[in-house]
Amino acid sequence: MESPHDYLSHALKQLRQANGWSLTQAAVNTGVSKAMLGQIERAESSPTVATLWKIATGFNVPFSFFIQSENDGSETPVTFSQSNAQMEVRSLLPYDPQLHMDLLEVTLAPGAQSHSSAHEEGVIEQVVVQEGELLLGVAGVWHRLVRGQARQFSADVAHSYRNPLATPLRFHSLIHYLSRPRITN
User: Fold this and answer.
1) CA angle centred on 51, ends 133 and 89, rounded to 5°
2) Quick one: average pLDDT of 29-42?
3) Is 156 within 8 Å of 120 (Cβ atoms)?
4) Domains in the chain and their CATH numbers?
5) I need a labelling partner for 115 at 20 to 30 A (CA). Which of 78, 142, 144, 158 fits?
6) 172, burial (CB in 10 Å: exposed 0-12, middle 13-18, buried 19+)
7) CB neighbours of 167 closer than 8 A, spacing ≥ 6?
8) Quick check: 123 and 175 in contact, CB under 8 A?
9) Cα 40 to the chain's mean position, in Å?
């Protein structure tokens, strides 16, 4: 089985080629630099979760496309970790093409924060705190959620996740895509 970074490299290259995009066109559509996209395709760089979201949004594919191989037959969820260990995302369920959704588990290190640019128009996210405390910023407004609390929001605006505690934060993120993402296998 290939490493998560090799899988990411192949998935990005496959998407770009399936769309007929050069690295320059992919950079324009995703907002990620041509140099960074090239490094990811060559498995020379590990992107942050925020960068991976930009790529997924630009290609109109679900986030889990980059972290879960649907062809490996494994029931074990695949995890994507940032190289600085501040954030980890695990796909709990692969993208469901009928329901247009991903189910992810997100872990933030103590004191960590992650900023996410606006996703595609119409994307809705629901978060449920499993452990710790989440400060959720949506369009500049902050909401405090503790274990067992949930919040739904429009993810087509900038949003942030912050862990204000000295212990890890773990929450589930259910992402609903308005339009059917373009997935090429």
Assistant:
1) 40
2) 93
3) yes
4) 4-66 (1.10.260.40), 79-176 (2.60.120.10)
5) 78
6) middle
7) 110, 131, 132
8) yes
9) 15
CA 34, distance to chain mean position in Å, is 20
Confidence of residue 83 (pLDDT cuts 50, 70, 90): low
**Cα gap 24→58, rounded to integer Å:** 13
In whole angstroms, give the CA distance from residue 28 to residue 96.
28
Distance of alpha carbon 78 from alpha carbon 93, whole angstroms: 10
Amino acid at 16: R
Report the distance separating Cα 36 and Cα 13, nearest Å: 13
pTM of the model: 0.81
CA atoms within 13 Å, Cβ hemisphere of 138: 16
One DSSP character per residue, 42-110 reads TT-----HHHHHHHHHHHT--GGGGT--TTS---SPPEEE-TTSSEEEEEEEEEETTTTEEEEEEEE-T
